[in-house]
Design a protein that fits this description.
Radius of gyration: 15 Å
Number of helices: 5
CATH class: Alpha Beta
Number of domains: 1
Largest sheet: 4 strands, mixed
CATH superfamily: CBS-domain
Order of helices and strands: EHEEHHEHEEH
């Protein structure tokens, strides 16, 4: 789980969100109003927006997933994987007491599954 989170406001232009995602090298951004999570915007969302054509007025709110699923820190990785697979998403905010404390990615789960595996030729 990553604790180095990128959060943006819903009204931020999508082009600025994309620039921040690239600068921070993240695949998903939390969309917040104050400390409240209102959405999540992923690289897939940005790609879909670009494919449909965006203009200067396009914002994070226009393409974010509203009220995303979240996971509590004490929930199992199996539960996280089930949520991700059945929900069709690769990023899952982790919240504790209604405050986002991290972001779990499908890559994080794969690292756990493969932590004892050795690449071919190593």
């Amino acid at each position: 789980m990553s604790r180095d989170l990128l959060s943006v406001e819903p009204g931020l232009p999508l082009t600025e969100v994309a620039k921040r995602m690239v600068a921070k090298d993240v695949g998903a951004v939390l969309v917040t109003e104050g400390k409240q999570l209102v959405g999540i915007l992923t690289e897939r969302d940005v790609l879909r927006a670009v494919a449909r054509g965006i203009d200067a007025g396009t914002t994070a709110a226009d393409w974010m997933t509203r009220d995303p699923e979240t996971l509590e820190p004490d929930e199992s990785t199996q539960h996280a994987a089930v949520l991700m697979i059945h929900g069709g998403f690769r990023h899952l905010p982790v919240s504790e007491n209604d405050e986002v404390v991290g972001m779990l990615s499908i890559r994080d789960l794969m690292r756990m599954v493969l932590e004892d595996a050795v690449p071919r030729g190593a």
